[in-house]
Write a structure and sequence with these properties.
Layout: E1 8-11, H1 13-21, H2 24-36, E2 48-50, E3 63-67, E4 70-77, E5 81-89, H3 95-99
Parallel strand pairs: 1-5
Antiparallel strand pairs: 2-3, 3-4, 4-5
């Protein structure tokens, strides 16, 4: 694959903060999944899919990658730019609840 076919990855400050607050053990696979978007960000897979409906707390997000109990929410912009918007702990919450910062024990 040539460099011209790759996506450029941008990470929003909110997503950077969320990654910095995680344990390294949890963050490593998430960072690997983010860098994997550089090669293929717009193909649905078992763990990566377009959102069915907009998230009220994050309407710009259009895709979701599942990494264990975490979700990477991102949008693909023009010129093959992937903007990682949030990295949220979902667990048993809905994506809307998790994006809003709710936590269910």
């Amino acid at each position: 694959m040539s460099a011209g076919n790759r996506y450029l990855i941008e990470v929003a400050s909110a997503a950077e903060r969320e990654l910095e607050e995680m344990r390294a053990f949890d963050a490593r696979p998430i960072v690997r999944a983010i860098w994997a978007l550089e090669v293929d960000a717009e193909t649905a897979t078992r763990n990566r899919k377009p959102l069915r409906k907009p998230i009220a707390q994050l309407p710009a997000a259009s895709w979701d990658v599942r990494v264990g109990d975490y979700r990477i929410l991102y949008a693909v912009k023009k010129d093959r730019v992937v903007r990682v918007l949030r990295v949220i702990f979902k667990g048993r919450l809905t994506i809307d609840e998790a994006a809003g910062g709710n936590r269910r024990e």
